Target: HNH nuclease domain-containing protein
Amino acid sequence: MLHKLSNTELLDKTKAIASQERKVQVELLWHLLEIQNRRLYLEIGFPSLYDYVVKELGYGHGAAYRRIQAMRLIESVPDVAEKIEEGSINLSTASQVQNFIKSERKNGGSVSYKQRVEMINAIENKSARDVEKHLINLKPENVIRPEKIRMVTPEIIEMRLMIPDDLKEKMDKLRQIFSHRIPDMTYLALMEYLVNQALKKVEKKHKSSSPALRLKAPEGHLLSKRNIPSTLRHAVWLRDGGVCSYQDPQTGRKCGGRNFVQVDHIHPWSKGGENKLENLQLLCAEHNRHKNNRTPS
Model:
């Protein structure tokens, strides 16, 4: 029992456990990298590695993000793994460096291997705040904080994000314009209003023009052209619920992803597949590419 340990024994044992935990963390990162390279998360019905880490491994959103970012840093600079294991760099600071590299690439630049190594050596044994200061000194515009979402209550979610000044100015302008409708409009109220307006437009666009179409697609609908008519696309969307219908053949787990969903021919068009409802399905972009890569030519 722990209460029987001396103070020295308790401290030594805790330190040993922390060291072992770091070793396990690094081992996990290497495993995630191999899963990414094999794209195994697609095989078992997840649209991204991030979804796999959150939903299958049970990590929180922030924890999953940090591990994936650290994994990507290890991929480009393998020596980082040893530094994480010895404790001179942790998942948070590794994630900060990877965010910096990602931002530089997004802004049209690049960070050489030598620059990455120098950056990593410079942040060893520093706190997350000190690392942030160091990266800001290198290039302020590259130091971006990832969006944070935290469940406060079952009905309330806290969301944190960084926005550019010009976007805030536009939001303030909208608050003034709508002030006659909603006096003292908060940013939350503005966001809710804009989201509701956008949803109305999207739902109106996808809304069926006739009640019959909501129940079934046109029977025997077959075209000689590859383009799928909008009525048939809409029927597929309604049937599949607007989500990716990929299903893991072993577990039966469905992807259910909503991002970049596309209408796909189950039996490829190039091999004689028809534009019929029974030959069409919704797939997210990742599973669509995954299917195409696996389909024999």
